[in-house]
Amino acid sequence: MSAPRLKLADLKGFPENVEEDGKIKTVEFIDASNEIVAVIEKFGKLFTPIVMDMRGNSSQLFDLYQKDVKNWEFIEDMILTAPELNSRSWLLWLKRALELIERFFYYVITDPNIIAQKSDSLQPMIVRAYNEVLKPYHGFLLQQTFSMLNRWIPNRKTLLGVDEYFEDNIKHLQILMPRMRKHIDKVDIFLKQNGFDDTSKV
To answer: The domain 22-193: what is its CATH number?
Structure first.
């Protein structure tokens, strides 16, 4: 029995506790986002465009943070006060990409045939996640690109494994994804409350 591409037990993930009225620590958010980028890299080389986009947005946010570490401990403060207005777009698109992956794994761990290891195809889950999260903001060319990528998503056995490997990965997804969802929702509320949620297509 060969090991799958993913070993989710190695992930630290997003912090467990997110206070409803609190803020998100910049470095913790970026570090957790970079872990997700590394996960997507395991999907295969065809997913490089997603990896590069996420890594670019994450890197630019971190480079910006380093310009004022003292005052930008929290990502909300950084986005509100940074002179680089592009930072709003960096956070917006990073959030959307994170949400794509969170929705994908959510549909994986809530599919009874996947959990029972009766089905191998993960394509319906990535298609559903894409249609919900990114498709509304993509023009024709990007929609066609993602349509091609979706067809090349690895199957369950390749990505998550079988038997003990699979069960361990599912166990950790069930722990990691709710924490990730809390951070996504918090960033989403922040962006919308401040008018930074640009809904135009690219």
So the answer is: 1.10.3520.10
